[in-house]
Amino acid sequence: MASVFIDGEAGTTGLGIRDRLARHPRVSVRSIASEDRKNPAAKLELMREVDLVVLCLPDEASKETVRLAAELGGDAPKILDASTAHRVAPDWTYGFAELAEGQDEAIRRAKHVANPGCYATGAIALLRPLVDAGLVAPDFPLTINAVSGYSGGGKSMIEAYDSGTAPSFELYGLGLDHKHLPEVMAYARLTRRPIFVPSVGNFHQGMLVSIPLHLDELPGRPDVAALGEALATRYAQGDHVVFAEATEPRIEAESLNDTNRMELRVYGNTAHRQAVLVAKLDNLGKGASAAAVQNLELMLGLA
Ligand SMILES: NC(=O)C1=CN([C@@H]2O[C@H](COP(=O)(O)OP(=O)(O)OC[C@H]3O[C@@H](n4cnc5c(N)ncnc54)[C@H](OP(=O)(O)O)[C@@H]3O)[C@@H](O)[C@H]2O)C=CC1
Ligand SMILES: CC(=O)N[C@@H](CCC(=O)OP(=O)(O)O)C(=O)O
Predict the structure, then answer these.
(1) Which candidate in 57, 82, 110, 118 is catalytic?
(2) 141 C-alpha vs ligand 2 centroid, how far in Å?
C-alpha cells in the first residue's frame, strides 16, 4: 500500500483528492491533525513517513512545504503540486500525461510533478497538436475565451456564491495577466502571448475553453475538417482526452463533471472560413483533483 499526505486536505482540491483516494485499493491517505495543519514540524514528521505528498495550497505555502521536504534529503517523499508555483519551473515535470508522447513516462520517473491549471489543460490540449502539426503558427495572435464554475475560485469564491453575494456571470482577468498564461505558452509552444479572457458563472463546477480562428490566417489555410483530423489523430489512443464530433451548434459546460475526461471539438463554418476549438472538462476533475490522482498513480508506479 502506498501512502500519501495531502497538504491542504480540507480545501476544495484537497477534498476532491481525498474523496477519490478513500476508495482507492492501493493508496492510503495519512492525515495531519486539523490544529497542526499549518505546523511545519508536524508536516515534516508526516513527510518522513509517506511515499508522496500532494500540495493543495496557495502558492507561497506550497513553496514552503517544498523547502521543508528538501530538509529530508534523499528520504524526501515525491511531491505533486496542485498550485501554480512550479508549473514552468525547470526542475519540475508538467503533469499532463497527454501533452506529448513520453510525458506519462516522464511523470512516472519524476520526483517533482506540477499538476496543470484547469484552463491551461483545455487550452494546451487544443493548441499543442495544431502547433506541432504546423496548422497554427507559434506566433499566431490567439484569443482564448473560457468559462468556469465558481468552485474554480476555491473556498472563498464558493462562499461568495453560496451566500448570494456574487454576480451571476462575470468576465475577469481583464488585466490580461492570468496565472495560467506562462504554462499555456510553454507547453503549447507559443511564442506570442495569447489574449486570455476567463469568466465565471453561477454553477458549481464545469468548464469550457474556446479558441476562435480565422482559417485564412493560418498557415496553409486549412479547412475545418483538417483541424479536427489533427486532434482526432493526436488523441486516438486517449482514455481521458478524446476528440468528439461537433454535432450541434451549441455546447454546455457540466456534462463531464466528476470525471477525469476532457472532450475536444472543432466547430466551424466552411463558407465563412471560421472555426472555434472547444475543450470541455470539469475544473475540479481533469482540471484538478482527478488529474492529480492520475498523476499520483503514475508517480507511485500504480499505473
Ligand atoms: N479550485 C480549483 O478548481 C483549482 C485549484 N487549484 C490550486 O490548488 C490550490 C488549492 O486551491 P483550492 O483547493 O481551490 O483552494 P481552497 O481555498 O479551497 O483551499 C486551500 C486550503 O489550503 C489551506 N492552507 C492555506 N495555507 C496553508 C498552509 N500554510 N498549510 C496548510 N494548509 C494551508 C487552507 O486552509 P485554511 O482555509 O484553514 O486557511 C485551505 O483548506 C491552489 O494553489 C489553487 O490554485 C488547481 C486547480 C484547480
Ligand atoms: C474561477 C476561478 O477563479 N478560477 C481560477 C483558476 C482555477 C485554477 O485552475 O487555478 P490553478 O490551477 O492555477 O490553481 C482563476 O482564474 O484564478
Answers:
(1) 118
(2) 23
